[in-house]
Amino acid sequence: MSDSLVIIPTYNEKENIERIIRKVFSLSFPFEVLIIDDGSPDGTADIVKLLQTEFAGLHMLQRTGKLGLGTAYIHGFKWALERPYQYIFEMDADFSHNPDDLIKLRNACVKGAEVSIGSRYVRGVNVVNWPMSRVLMSYFASMYVRLITRINIQDATAGFKCYQRIVLETIPLDKIKFVGYAFQIEMKFTAIKYGFNVVEVPIIFTDRTEGTSKMSTRIFREAFLGVIQMKINSWFRSYKRS
């Protein structure tokens, strides 16, 4: 059994899911994979089931509908913590996150980071195939998060991450409020408030070429207001480790 689990939420990813799974299992380090499928009507889960006969380290949790990115990851984190994984990853299914970078993120945690973030902005802007409007929206969203929260993270909305087990054991997962992309901000903010060492690892982010993006301006609007709420709520919370 591997000590590292890659959690990949899916909804209608039939064009990408087999390729991403095969790529992860082809890496030089033996990662395991947990797919969390939100009832994809396109047959994504059926493809995963077929691949489970080939890859012993491939796992899947199926949910009944689109319940949100955050709840998918929380579900996956809890599943992982019931097993002896030491390094737990978040990764998209659409190859916007390069699976080769999983090894870089793991190495960062092995060397002392407690959360490692695949960062698009720690060394300039490293984004491929995004329209300028979306690059600017993402980049300035991270600036806004830094301004409101005072956390020194260049890519606050990044969704490619590795957690050491202790981080997910410490954060009260049931108190994480956001279910959309603001979930990524809340997890970073909370980890930092608990005093964990969060490190950004430079990556190149490439927009999907297959399937349909789930990002929208509505998601960014929700995050805009949610960051203020999150900061205010933090004034009334204790972040002492037990």
UniProtKB/TrEMBL annotation:
User: What lineage does UniProt assign to this protein's organism?
Assistant: Bacteria, Pseudomonadati, Bacteroidota, Sphingobacteriia, Sphingobacteriales
An example of a GO molecular function for this protein is: dolichyl-phosphate beta-D-mannosyltransferase activity
The record's comment on protein family reads: Belongs to the glycosyltransferase 2 family.
Under the heading Pfam families, the entry gives: Glycos_transf_2
Extract the Gene3D superfamilies matched here.
Spore Coat Polysaccharide Biosynthesis Protein SpsA, Chain A (3.90.550.10)
Listed InterPro entries: DPM1-like, Glyco_trans_2-like, Nucleotide-diphossugar_trans
Kindly give the SUPFAM superfamilies that the UniProt entry links to this protein: Nucleotide-diphospho-sugar transferases (SSF53448)
Q: What is this protein called?
A: Dolichyl-phosphate beta-D-mannosyltransferase
Q: Which organism is it from?
A: Pedobacter antarcticus 4BY
Q: Which GO terms describe its cellular component?
A: membrane
From the UniProt record, give one GO term of the biological process aspect: glycolipid biosynthetic process
Residue ranges of every copy of the Glycosyltransferase 2-like domain listed in the record: 6-170
Which keywords has UniProt assigned to this entry? Answer: Glycosyltransferase, Transferase
